[in-house]
Amino acid sequence: MKIMPKKNINKIEINYELDGSGEEVLVFLNGIMMSTVSWTAHVPFFTANGLRVLRVDFRDQGQSGRAKEPYTIDQHVEDLQQLVESLQVRRIHLHGISYGGQVALLFALKYPDMVQSLIIANTVPRLTKYLRGIGDAWDEAAKLKDGRNFFRIIAPSIYSNLFFESNPEFLKEREDMLANLLDEGWFDAYLRLSSSNSDLNLLDRLYEIKAPTLLVAADRDAVTPIEEMRAMRDRINGSRFVLIPDSGHVSCYEKMDEYNLLILGFIALIRAKTNIQ
């Protein structure tokens, strides 16, 4: 059994995994229900292409410590900054999906000199009434503290209808896994994470982001309206916007090959521009 490395950051243990031996570091920040394990299948592709891959569990996620009191999403920014510095990494390619994308945006705003590039997938910069409605429904599902019912309630909004129709075995395996894995402590932690971004609204600050930015949206994402990601594109100077077809909110799973190639291609573009300069 692999022992996960942890560091005591801001009075809590933060779990991370660092793979590869390249000079450049690509960070993976989880969606709210994810963990470092969620990216296991992605890692070999990036390490084989010369990148070190840093995966991080936020506090209240995966194998990281559980918080004893409420916090705001900004806390993850401070945890990540101290973790990266403790690993003696100066600059990062910062990638986040959904909740992790929100943390990445906040990090790029507060620590711009540490961000070599920014990759934001299936993420909204603010919580609209529509998104609050989805979040409230997920919270009510979490309060049941039943992994199987939780998955059954949230799955249709996370996966695209096309994926849902054509992958029944995958979905059943996922349901069974969560039924056995999710306990009361997990649901309590999820609810703390869910409440941490209730006041988030970065729309009017996005023009401050200076890092080269890639925005990845999906055309069948019911959780992240395309309009919200296009609003980010219009406010982040020079940002690139890509729409993955026939995919839902978890485009990193539904279209993993396309997803990985988009990230690697963008990093290659940043490298090329840096070499020219």
Structure notes:
This protein has a single domain, classed as Alpha/Beta hydrolase fold, catalytic domain (Rossmann fold), CATH 3.40.50. Helices cover 44% and strands 17% of the residues. The protein is built from 11 helices and 8 strands. It has an 8-stranded mixed β-sheet with strand order 1-2-4-3-5-6-7-8, sandwiched between helices. α2 crosses α3 (99-110), α4 (129-142) packs antiparallel against α5 (147-158) and α5 (147-158) crosses α7 (168-181).
Radius of gyration: 18 Å
Distance between the termini: 46 Å
Strand share of the residues? 15-25%
The number of domains is 1
Q: What's the order of the H and E elements?
A: EEEHEHEHEHHHHHEHEHH
Overall pLDDT level: 95
Q: Name the structural class.
A: alpha/beta
Number of β-strand runs: 8
Largest sheet: 8 strands, mixed
Low-confidence stretches: none
- The number of distinct helices, counting runs of at least 4 residues, comes to 11
CATH architecture: 3-Layer(aba) Sandwich
Strand order of the largest sheet: 1-2-4-3-5-6-7-8
CATH structural class: Alpha Beta
The quaternary organization reads as: single chain
